[in-house]
Amino acid sequence: MANSDAPMHPAGIDVPAWCSAHKTPRLVVCATAKTAPQRPKLRRIFQKTQTAISLGLALALASGPVFATNTAMLQLLSALHKKGTIDDETYQAILLSAQADETQSTAASAEVAKKVDQSLVKLGTPVLTPGKFEIKDKPGDFAWRTIGRVQYDNAFFDNNGSFKTSDNNQFRRVRLGVMGTVATNWKFKVEYDLREIDAGISGLKDAYIEYIGKLPGIDPIKHPVDIKIGQSYEPFSFELLNGSNNSLFTERALPANALSSFLGERNPGLKVTTWGESWTAAAGLFGTRQQETLTAVNCTLPTGANFKAGAKFTCGGGLEETPPRAFNDGYAGTVRGTYAPWQNPGHVLHLGSAFSYRDFANNNLVRFRDRMEVNETSIRLVDTGDFKADDFLRWNAEVMVIEGSFTFQGEYLLLKTHAPSVQDPLFTGYYVSAGWFLTGESRPYKFQEGIFDSVKPNSIVGKGGMGAWEIVTRYSSTDLTDGLVQGGQENNWSVGLNWFPAPNIRFMADYMKVLAVKGGPFANSTPSALVLRSAVFW
Fold first, then answer.
1. What is the pLDDT of residues 180-211, one digit of tens each?
2. I need a surface site. Which of 48, 168, 431, 500 has the fewest CB within 10 A?
3. Alpha-carbon distance 379 to 361, whole Å?
4. CA-based angle 114:120:116, to the nearest 5?
């Protein structure tokens, strides 16, 4: 019998007070008279059951990230909530679960997108570089821009011993070139030094076609491949690979120059580079750099009695003094590996080593020498002179550390010749250098190439700033005496100041002191020099 105090079911049915009327139409949960005293417990059991079912539904719906973006499913949940199938507490729990899932999914998607972007950068996908003038049609299809650098030096010498030279100045480098991207993965670069225009093709610096992307059987994301055909750097020595725009000093360290002066740092050939998360590997086969030069062109016009209407200029010269070098004039196989377990901005550890074998025509004349880390003099304090050799091996070990504003760079180099007539001499050298930014900047690092990148000052002169200021120091040594070759030994110490008033502009002041020279015509000479450089590049 119905109780007057009993609740009314939404469908209009009277139910006993000890019955529970669910909000869903035609659903009544009622205990028998025998169990009526336990109705609070029954209600709790029902509520727990209802909650469990609702949470089970929530769990099933929110079990995947698809739910977070499924509009239809959210609308269904809202309808169930409005009709009372799902109470407020359960509905809010489901929404919170969905939002958490969506946040997690969004974060995961952002992380994936970040990794994809990083992979695209490693793959060489072109982007518009801030501060660079580029001509582009479609993104990733074609890009073309000019490149160049101008470096003007003034050198002031303090002569000593047998070393006698005059103060001098020169345009150290005046280069113009173009580089670009074709069809996303194909690149090119051509650069020429106008200082050497009288020397013909020997003034050509980089000149290559490059492919960056996928090769059969190689994962392009984990291990992108870079292939260069033409003239480019042999993958040997941090100091040789690191360009003059980003070096710590005006000139490379003594052993790097002395042990590469015979062949130079760039040669024509084929080079392949790949890399992983923390390592790079490069290998190449190279010929001998072209060295032909042109004689001057002289043109004359008949004068005096020989001049008449229609007279023409008579020209002569302009012939190549030496023909292009044949492949058997010399070839090299060179490999380099680097490992950088830390490579975050301002926190880099770089380790590397390279090996190179060069063979050339039997009994070819070779010569190793170097200036005193100052290019404005023709005097070489250490010089092996010409000697006959069949081939030689080169090896190096390198380390570089960037920790905040501090930079450390060091390297050991070795060159072993096969020259029986002079007892196969072995030449060695090393250097250590360090720099500190007084204004807080940190040297950027190019991981794929294993060298420095361009410094970006924190503030710019002319825009309320003072630019970037860096002090640097270096100790270097090379020994060109071994066997029957008496090239001498030299030790140098340098200190310098670099100022970057704006990106792509640098002023440098280097003081270099020769500490000792042993052997050769300049033994015991200890000259010094101050070099000032003004430089811009683009």
1. 988 878 999 999 999 887 777 778 999 999 99
2. 48
3. 29
4. 30
Residue 433 has pLDDT above 70, yes or no: yes
Look-up: residue for tokens 């052993």? Answer: 255
Closest residue by Cα to residue 121 from 254, 262, 224, 192: 224
**Residues 374-389: tens digit of each pLDDT:** 999 999 999 999 999 9
Kindly report, residue by residue over 322-336, the tens digit of the pLDDT: 445 444 467 899 999
Q: Is the Cα dihedral 457, 462, 465, 470 positive or negative? A: positive
Q: List b or e across 472-505, with b for residues whose CB sees 16 or more CB atoms inside 10 angstroms.
A: bbbbbbbbbbbbebbbbbbbbebebebbbbbbbb
Q: How many CA atoms lie within 13 A of 516 on its CB side?
A: 9
- Hey, how many other C-beta atoms are within 10 angstroms of the C-beta on 334? 22
418 token code pair: 């096969």
Q: What pLDDT score does 338 carry?
A: 98
By CB neighbour count within 10 A (0-12 exposed, 13-18 middle, 19+ buried), where does 228 fall? buried
Return the amino acid letter for 453: D
Is 123-290+325-537 a domain of CATH 2.170.270.10?
Answer: no
The span from the CA of 292 to the CA of 289, in Å, is 10
> Tokens 């105090």 correspond to what residue?
5
Q: Domain map of the chain by residue range?
A: 31-105, 123-290+325-537, 291-321
Q: Which residues contact 377 (CB under 8 A, 6 or more apart)?
A: 155, 157, 165, 168, 371, 529
Residue 56 burial by CB count (10 A; 0-12/13-18/19+): exposed, middle or buried? exposed
What is the band of 24 on the pLDDT scale with cuts at 50, 70, 90? very low
Whether the Cβ atoms of residue 265 and residue 233 lie closer than 8 Å to each other: yes
For residue 12, give the DSSP letter. S
The better pLDDT of the pair 6, 503 is held by 503
Q: How many CA atoms lie within 13 A of 523 on its CB side?
A: 8
